[in-house]
Amino acid sequence: MSLPTLIFDLDGTLVDSAGDLAGALNVLLAEDGRPELSVDETRSLIGGGAQVLILRAWKRTGEPLDPARLETLYRRFLEIYQDRLTALTRVYPEVVETLERLRDAGFTMGVCTNKPITPTLTILDSLDLKRFFGAVLGGDSLPWKKPDPRHVTAVVDALDGRGKPAILVGDSAIDVAAGHAADLPVIAVTWGYARSPLVASDAEAAIDLFSALPEAIEDLQGRLWLRLHDEP
After folding, report:
1. Which of 9, 16, 20, 171 is flagged as catalytic?
2. Which residues make up the CATH 1.10.150.240 domain(s) of the chain?
3. Could you confirm whether 9 is annotated as catalytic?
4. N or C, which end of the chain is more exposed by having fewer CB within 10 Å?
5. pLDDT, tens digit (0-9, with 9 covering 90-100), for 206-226
């Protein structure tokens, strides 16, 4: 069996960025005269990109946001966030060691995230993760983003993986939906920002530790191979 191309989500999968997102969000809320949110409260709102985060934060702290203001607040949020991208953001345990193992085994890997590409690349570079990935696409790299499957398949194409097996690794319902829409199996991580406990059960596999990923990939490859050869 050929090795599958591996496509990773970023926030909640490879890195815990909730602290820096909360810090930037609280500056934005304060500028609008709204109360701050704790890191745990912010973590519960993450998923879908910064614009969705802002909408959820405004709903949580008072009157819902006037949609006409969203673009202005989004640009201001990015300005604030750009100055604190890795102040508190950390790589999850066992990520570096496992990515090194996968790379050395010959896997081709990429990142597909709804975070804008500029902060994405800064975070990957600052945390010494960029070296593992042959392609990285952010939420503003294309006219569409997850859960649109074209966001995922564009990363696969950039890795020259079209027509080859591929697996998406992520933490949210958006990742599961994007992977399935792209006709890819999904491995869900259980430590991220999922807003529903059903995410893991909707995926083809789930892991509680990043070091379990190689075994999950091997098991999933075996099941897919058996399914393929059992079909008439």
Report:
1. 9
2. 18-82
3. yes
4. C
5. 999 999 999 999 999 877 665
